[in-house]
Amino acid sequence: MATQTEPAPPVGAAIALEPLVRRVLADNPSAFTLHGTQTYLVGSGSDVAVIDPGPDEAAHIDALVAAIGDRRVAAICCTHTHRDHSPAAAPLKARTGAPVIGCAALNLESIGPRGDAPFDPSYTPDRVLHDGERLAGDGWTLTAIATPGHTSNHLCFALEETGALFTGDHVMGWSTTVVIPPDGDMGQYMASMELLYEREDRIYYPAHGAPVTKPRQLVRGMIGHRRQRERQIRRLLDGGPKSIPEMVAAMYVGLDSRLVGAAGMSVLAHLTELQNRGEADSTNDIWHLTN
User: Fold this and answer.
1) pTM of the complete model
2) Cβ neighbours of residue 235 under 8 Å, at least 6 residues apart?
3) Residue 183 among the catalytic residues
4) Which of 133, 147, 196, 212 is most buried per CB count within 10 Å?
5) How is 237-253 classified by DSSP, letter by letter?
6) Nearest to 169, CA basis, from 226, 115, 122
């Protein structure tokens, strides 16, 4: 499901998006990260928070340090621990002395082809934020919003002064996020989307893709898209038991071959949710409806 797009921002440049928010793009483009991971610097006074420091790449860390300048880094915040988001936390901490504060540590092996970077085993937070906990600095306040689904440890961060929400990979500015079992959970993802739909955030700043200027409209569309996918799976299984590759071929006609594995994992996430509700099951990797 395509969403909002923009031209590729310049790599390494600190781009002001609003008075309290600057964005620095890492040079790690891919079929799954679009132009790369976007790190956000929050604060215009004596200190800043760094959200999603990104990959452990020297040029990106140098760009962040240059953008920070002589400000104190109050916190290095990670939305989750995939390797395109959190590995720069440790080297940035070493250079700034800032604590790593945000999501819990999580390091799991994938059960199949990933549509995103695997987990970062080096991530060691100094403090884990729970839903509703806050960080404050000079003119800014960030509130942690627990949004499990893409990963079980995923957080968004709400900037209370401006109504902005940093959405990590939960809501991206160019595509729907990938939900990959066993840690990714479609039921949790949908509940987290419903939670965001009930909020009144002014704008989303995702880790990949353009800012989302109509958040509730986008979230409503994404919820509808996921429900449509579930209905599509049920219709396919109404015609008889099927394997996941058979369902992917029917559901994603013309899909980029690089994304076939990710599509299969997304179908598995929907099937697992149906299984959890007692509506589907599998035998020897062949899925069927139970009611």
Assistant:
1) 0.92
2) none
3) no
4) 147
5) HHT--EEHHHHHHHHST
6) 115
Q: How confident is the model at residue 108 (pLDDT cuts 50, 70, 90)?
A: low
Q: How far apart are CA 85 and CA 93, in angstroms?
A: 14
Tokens of 150: 């893409």
Average pLDDT over residues 31-37: 85
Residue burial 180-195, b: 16+ Cβ < 10 Å; e: rest: bbebbbbbbbbebbee
pLDDT of 118 = 80
pLDDT digits (tens, 9 = 90+) for 223-244: 999 999 999 999 999 999 999 9
In contact, 40 and 22? CB cutoff 8 Å: yes
Mean pLDDT score, 207-233: 96
Angle at 177 between CA 126 and CA 156, to 5 degrees: 35
Spot the catalytic one: 56, 62, 70, 84.
Answer: 84
Q: Are 99 and 75 in contact (CB under 8 A)?
A: yes
- Supply 34's token pair: 């679009």
Q: What is the dihedral of CA 99, 163, 153, 184, to 10 degrees?
A: -150
| Res 80 pLDDT > 70 | yes
For 271, the 3-state DSSP assignment is: helix
Nearest to 43 by CA among 139, 178, 150: 139
pLDDT of residue 145: 98
Closest by alpha carbon to 121, among 103, 105, 98? Answer: 105
Per DSSP, the residues of 42-83 read E-SSSEEEEE---S--HHHHHHHHHHHTTSEEEEEE-S--BT
Question: What's the residue count for the chain?
Answer: 291
The mean predicted confidence, pLDDT, of the chain is 92
